[in-house]
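Researcher: We're teaching a course module on how sequence relates to structure. For the next exercise, students receive a sequence and then see the predicted structure as tokens, so they can try to spot secondary structure elements on their own. Here is the exercise chain.
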Amino acid sequence: MSPPVLTIAAAPVRRRTGCAALREGTDPAMAFVPNNLAVLSYAAGFTLWTYATVEDSVGAVLGAGYFDDARTYVRADDLILLNAADGARILRVVAHDGARVSVASIAGDVPIAPPEVPGEAILDEAGNPILDEAGAPILQG
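Model: And here is the predicted structure for the students to work with:
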């Protein structure tokens, strides 16, 4: 009689894709990838993380439930440096109840638009308007 064979299989990685994502009410394209989350620094119970995704937008990452699968890693008040498909942000873990992880952007939300320059403004060699003492563009004429 031969000895019994013990087969050990790794647990499948849970990803929100296809029908499973639709059943969970999430966007199939929005999927947290644990391997994309990495520790940059840890001290005194605080962790600075980095998370990069080339598939998800900043809006998708900020969406409810995106970081829920990271609940065993992150803690409230941790920071995450996000590099997403359409931009970068600094995120703070604002809530963590053991099942749900909520993040909020604390930096990088809205790009600062350059001031409008009138067509009759005098420009320097670099194409920037020359400003008066009050900070207004000097106009021709």
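Model: If you want an answer key for the exercise: The radius of gyration is 24 Å. Residues 6-24 have pLDDT under 50 and may be disordered.
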